[in-house]
Each structure stands twice: as C-alpha cells, then as structure tokens.
Design a protein that fits this description.
The protein is mainly alpha-helical. 62% of the residues lie in helices and 2% in strands. Helix 2 packs across helix 4 (100-129) and helix 8 packs across helix 9 (201-224).
C-alpha cells in the first residue's frame, strides 16, 4: 500500500505480498525498520513515509492472518488493504496503552470476523431465495485454494494432514477460529490475545478450551482411522 503525497493511502498493484530481495539480488536479510513508536510519532508529525514503513513492516503478517482466517487469496488481499485503510484513519487517535502490534491485530481480527459474518449472511440469503428446481451447482462446490502459509512445513509436512486441519479449522465459529490462530499459529500470549480481542484473560482461556475441544470432535474420525 503506497501513500500519496497528499497523505491518502493508495492501493498497490495486485500480487500480495511476496518478499522481494533488495536491488534484484538474492538475500536472506530482512529489511530494517524503525521502532513502531518512532514511526507513529513521525506520521502524526506529518511524515507520510513513516506510515508506508509501518505498512511494509506488517503487511505480510496481516495478509497471512487474513488468509488463514478466510482461506481466499483475493479476499485476503482486499482485507489487508481494508485493515491498513482503517489504521490510516485511526492511527492519530492511537494511544500507547498497549503495543501497536496488538492494536493492529485487533483491527485485523475484527475485519476478518466481519467479513466471514457478511459472507455467511450472503450464503443464507442465497439459500433462502433459491428456486426449488435449482441444482445449486454454482454454490455446492467449496473453492480449493492452496494455502502453504497456513501452518509451518516443519510441523505439518504431510499435505493430507494439512488439508484436514484447514478444513477442521474452517468449521469453527469465527471467534473460535481467530483464537486458535492467534494462540497456536501466531504464538500470542494470553495477555496479548485478551488485548486483541478486548476480553479478559479468563475468557481467552475459556474460548481456547472450547476451540480445542471442538477441533477434537471434528477430527475424531480422522484420528481413529
């Protein structure tokens, strides 16, 4: 996401987001970014490059989380743009009561949950309005989208298991799905998840327990086989 000289974010070209080596050369070095507080202070003072640096610093993580939540590359790209547009509009009111990283993830998680709920309502609306004679063929197939970023290759080398786990996770409610991703995939602490979701640490533990139990139920047949 680029930022125009006038201070408004500009949508980048499609192809989101792949790490590119600097100057066209192969490199394993990650780009060096300023600290979040310095970038936020700079942007509030009128430095639009500071916001662009924040985007570059976090866009891949935001995109990957969206992809794991909604399992659709195009929609994940659009959701990433939506997240950073919200950040752009709200960042001047951001207070340092908790880290920018958790604040950004709160916006990301809420955007994904809102998207999934809208999608569910649309599917229900289509189902209710369908003619009795329709075969539903255009809605009956689940879109298969490769998702190599869903889980680390080291943990799930077996592609069949990867697919089973993705399908099981997609059967969770939006809130349970998000808490599993935040804890088991993103590695956030209970305290950080509580900040991201705007709830108590006890609620986080309770939801995580329910999510794990639900996954056990969904995966029961696979585990037995």
């Amino acid at each position: 996401m680029a930022v125009k000289n006038g201070g408004n974010p500009e949508k980048p070209e499609r192809g989101m987001p792949k790490q590119q080596p600097a100057s066209g050369e192969e490199t394993n070095q990650l780009p060096t970014f300023r600290k979040d507080d310095a970038l936020i202070s700079g942007f509030k003072a009128g430095d639009t490059d500071a916001f662009q640096e924040l985007v570059l610093k976090y866009e891949k993580r935001v995109y990957n989380h969206c992809l794991r939540m909604v399992n659709d590359e195009e929609e994940s790209y659009d959701l990433t743009q939506e997240v950073f547009l919200k950040v752009f509009r709200k960042i001047k009111n951001y207070e340092h009561t908790y880290s920018f990283y958790t604040w950004l993830y709160r916006i990301t998680v809420n955007s994904c949950i809102d998207y999934l709920r809208r999608k569910k309502r649309q599917v229900q609306s289509i189902s209710l309005s369908a003619n009795p004679g329709d075969d539903g063929s255009q809605y009956g197939k689940e879109q298969e989208i490769p998702d190599n970023t869903y889980v680390p290759d080291v943990a799930f080398a077996n592609k069949e298991l990867d697919q089973v786990l993705r399908q099981a996770n997609n059967q969770l409610s939006e809130r349970l799905r998000s808490i599993i991703l935040l804890k088991e995939i993103e590695g956030f602490s209970y305290e950080e998840i509580a900040e991201i979701l705007g709830c108590s640490k006890g609620t986080v533990k309770s939801r995580l327990f329910r999510a794990r139990e639900r996954l056990k139920e969904i995966l029961a047949d696979y585990i037995k086989s």
